[in-house]
Amino acid sequence: MSTAIYLSRGEVKIMGKNQDVPYEGVYLFTNKRGIAKKAMIMSPVMPMEWMSRLGSVTVSQVGKEYPNGGMNEAGLVVEQTTLRSSVYPEVGTFPAIGELPFIQLLLDTCENVQEAIEMAARVRIVDPMSRLHYMMGDALGNCAVLEYVNGEMKVYDKESLPKTILANTPYCDALADLEDTHNGWQRSYDDYARNSMERFTIAAAAASLPVPSGRNSRTVYMLDALTAAKREDTAYSLMYDIADKRLYFRTERSPSLKMLDLAHLDFSPEATALALDLQQPEGGDAGSRLATYDRSLNFRVVQSFFRDPTLTEAFGWNLSDEMLEFLSAIPDSYEAVAQKREF
């Protein structure tokens, strides 16, 4: 399920995210500039190919290059929540990509929301494991929501995005019911959809309050908003401080607040890729706890996710051991390319 909140007030640019899923495994990965990549899509569909222009940190329960969300060094944040009604394009001439690698593509190539919208319009999502909609925010104060309605991409931004909140209801439906204060919710919701609207309403109320400007104060503010919108199965919460290029995180199992400063990371093609298990018992600066990334670590992440009994029963996955090996080896198949930093 999940809830995302973006706030822009003067110099304050922050995004928060609750990941609601009955699975606690979650890792952070660094992603370097100057890496040539190709979407792993079955033929005859043409896969998307690109080169990473920007470094980023991503958070994933699935494995490296399959992020649930993240932030790049230009300050673009891309997050997602489940939207069961999403219908991706079935046919088209644009190159194809999966619904989670799509997030990595945007972080690799786009400095801001406008660039991300333009990139999203040039690819199509195929063979999804899940149906999602996306929230993007940047250091300029811009925010957008991307949804796939009847096979077409729909963008909400500027005047069409008065509430920078995302839960698990189609944005236009959530906004209409939120604003219909006289008649109340006009749609008939099942338990799943009702919970989504409740979280959307709670998050919208929290986001309407004044946002403090101090670093610690705005962090507490966003975490309080996420706490108000959490569910029993909230696995972890993130707070992206876009202006300061910092990621704050805590998990349900390890609730002490941790922080990672992107300014202290090396995203050059020659740098060592790093990873971090977010289930860190101690709070504070997590930079020194980053470990060298390798394929065996990624295999453990991939295997743990796709062999989890609860998730397997819920989603009906039946991936072979060979497929898990293939997924975990994808990052090692990419090639570093010499590149100058462009911003």
TrEMBL record:
Pfam families: CBAH (PF02275). GO terms for molecular function: hydrolase activity. The keyword Hydrolase applies. Residues 69-244 form the Choloylglycine hydrolase/NAAA C-terminal domain. InterPro entries: CBAH/NAAA_C, Ntn_hydrolases_N, Peptidase_C59. Keywords: Hydrolase. It comes from the Bacteria. Belongs to the peptidase C59 family. This is Linear amide C-N hydrolase. It comes from Paenibacillus paeoniae. The lineage of its organism: Bacteria, Bacillati, Bacillota, Bacilli, Bacillales.
